[in-house]
Amino acid sequence: MFKGQFIHSIDNKGRVSIPAKLRKYISPEANNSFVMTQGIDACIDIYPRDQWQTIEEKLLKLNTFIPKESRFLRLMLQNAHEDEMDGQSRIVIPQNLLEYAQIENEVLIIGALKKIEIWNPKVYKNYIDGSSETFEQIASEVMSL
Amino acid sequence: MFKGQFIHSIDNKGRVSIPAKLRKYISPEANNSFVMTQGIDACIDIYPRDQWQTIEEKLLKLNTFIPKESRFLRLMLQNAHEDEMDGQSRIVIPQNLLEYAQIENEVLIIGALKKIEIWNPKVYKNYIDGSSETFEQIASEVMSL
DNA sequence: CCACTTTTCCCCACTACACCCCAAAATAAT
DNA sequence: ATTATTTTGGGGTGTAGTGGGGAAAAGTGG
Domains in chain B, ordered, with CATH? Predict the structure, then answer.
C-alpha cells in the first residue's frame, strides 16, 4: 500500500511523475489509470482505477433525491478526472484541481495506503503545524480501540 | 523477538547494517524487507515487513473522511519508508528520518521485540536520564496487571 | 464545410542519483 | 595463527525524474 513522501516538480503542462516507489504498489488491474478528485483538505486525491471502483460503489448507494446526498455527489464528481500515465509514468492534473490545491511549481506527494495525495508543500506544512495536538496524543486517541 | 543494543556506524549514504544477532529473529515471511517510520520518541522504528502488516491492517480500518483520522494517517505514513537489505545486510535510511532522530555518524540500535529502534546515542542517554521515575517505580506501575 | 489556432498526446534526450557489485577492514571463532 | 563471518567503504551503471519538440486531434470562427 502507498506510503512515504516525495517532492516532485510539476511542469507547465501540468504533468507530475508518479514516484517509482509508489508505482510498485499499483495493481495491474488499475491498467495504469488513475482517478483524481478533490481531497478532504487542500489536496488532490489520486486513486488507482481499481481502488476508485470501491468508492464509486459507495457513491452509487446514495439517494440522489435527498438534497444533501445529491449535493455531496456533485461535489465529489465535479472535479473528478480520469487519466492514464504516459510513457514516462506521468499524469496530467487538470487546472481546476491545481487551483483547488493551490499548487504552483512544486508538489508534495504523500502515499496514504489506498490513495496518493498531492499537496502544495507550504500548504501541507501549515496543515501539520496547525494542529495543537501532538502526534503522541492523536496516536493514543485514534489507535486505542 | 528482538532484544539487546548495538552501536553501529552510519555512512554518508545513510546505510546502516542490521546486527547479525537481530537478523536471526527475522522471519522468512519478511522477505528481507523492512518498513521504517518515525517512532513515538526521537527515534526511528524499523519493522520487518510481516510485522508492519498488522499495523497497516489497523490503519486500513480508519475512515479517511473523518478529518482527525485522516490527519493521523498522514502523520503515520508521511515518513514511512520501505526498503530491502542489500547484499551486506544493510538498509538505507532516508534523510527525513535521520533528521527526525537527529542522527549523525553513529547509531544506537535497540531490539524492542517486534521492532528495532534506531537512536542517536546521545539523545538516548538524555532520554533515559531525563525521567524522574526510577526503573523500579515504572516497573511496579506497568507490570502490575 | 473549410481554414486556422490551440491544446493534447507521444516520443526523444539529458542529468543526477540510487542501487548493486566488489573489496577491504575488523571482529569473532576454530 | 588461520579461517570464517560480520561490518564498513567506495566506484560504476542503470533507471528515475525532468524538460522540450513535433505530430495529431480538438476546438473556434469565417
Answer: 5-142 (3.40.1550.20)
3-state helix, strand, coil in chain B (%, to 5): 35, 30, 35
The partner residues of B38 in beta bridges, in order of sequence, read B44
Handedness of CA A109, A112, A114, A117 (dihedral sign): negative
Cell output for A88: 514516462
Closest-CA residue of B relative to A42 is B67
Handedness of CA A17, A40, B46, B133 (dihedral sign): positive
- Whether A4 and B81 lie within 8 Å, measured CB to CB: yes
* CA atoms of A129 and A116, how far apart (whole Å): 21
Q: What is the reported pTM?
A: 0.93
Cell numbers given for A87: 510513457
Tell the burial category of A105 from Cβ atoms under 10 Å away from its Cβ (0-12, 13-18, 19+): exposed
> Which residues in chain A are closer than 8 Å to B67, comparing Cβ atoms?
40-41
Question: In this structure, which amino acid lies at residue A101?
Answer: A
The model's pLDDT over A91-123, given as tens digits with 9 standing for 90+, comes to 999 999 999 999 999 999 999 999 999 999 999
One-letter identity of residue A142: V
